[in-house]
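[recover] target loaded
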């Protein structure tokens, strides 16, 4: 599956004065900056996508994703969608809050999941898929709640008894589900 077959849009981010990150595909003011480029629209970026160390060909991770998805019983299209949303397939991604690697594992989560090197694609995906399995089990297979917990944390989903009322989390769940459908259709 090529990334250029996905239905995507540029994703913009903005950090407000309280340090809260906001993500959107339709920026409402100049404070929003491009976070993820739509590779389908940007031919120059699409050409460089496979050549840079920043992001690589998503297909190169398919063997790892297929093996670990099967091992943990997690839909591979969901795993691909989370990776797409979290890092844009950048194994070296590091968020301002310290999440790292393809599946953007927080240091504590990576430690709990016994991820030796969060920047190693196999270690990172193994940890991320194990965590998704845990969340899916916790929420009895409810993918939306599992994704909300992946983004905002298990405690926040429990506190609100569902998807937290955070724009970022609601957008994240919607975006990942959309990506998942795209990956299922390929």
């Amino acid at each position: 599956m090529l990334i250029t077959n996905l239905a995507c849009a540029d994703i913009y981010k903005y950090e407000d004065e309280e340090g809260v990150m906001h993500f959107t595909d339709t920026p409402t003011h100049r404070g929003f900056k491009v976070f993820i480029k739509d590779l389908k629209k940007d031919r120059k970026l699409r050409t460089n996508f496979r050549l840079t160390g920043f992001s690589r060909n998503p297909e190169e991770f398919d063997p790892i994703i297929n093996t670990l998805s099967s091992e943990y019983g997690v839909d591979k299209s969901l795993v691909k969608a989370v990776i797409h949303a979290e890092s844009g397939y950048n194994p070296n991604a590091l968020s301002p809050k310290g999440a790292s690697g393809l599946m953007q594992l927080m240091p504590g989560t990576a430690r709990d999941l016994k991820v030796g090197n969060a920047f190693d694609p196999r270690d990172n995906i193994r940890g991320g898929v194990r965590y998704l399995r845990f969340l899916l089990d916790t929420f009895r297979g409810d993918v939306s709640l599992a994704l909300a917990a992946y983004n905002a944390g298990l405690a926040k989903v429990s506190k609100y008894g569902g998807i937290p009322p955070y724009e970022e989390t609601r957008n994240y769940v919607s975006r990942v589900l959309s990506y998942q459908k795209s990956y299922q259709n390929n």
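[recover] notes: The domain at 3-184 is CATH 1.10.530.10 (Lysozyme).
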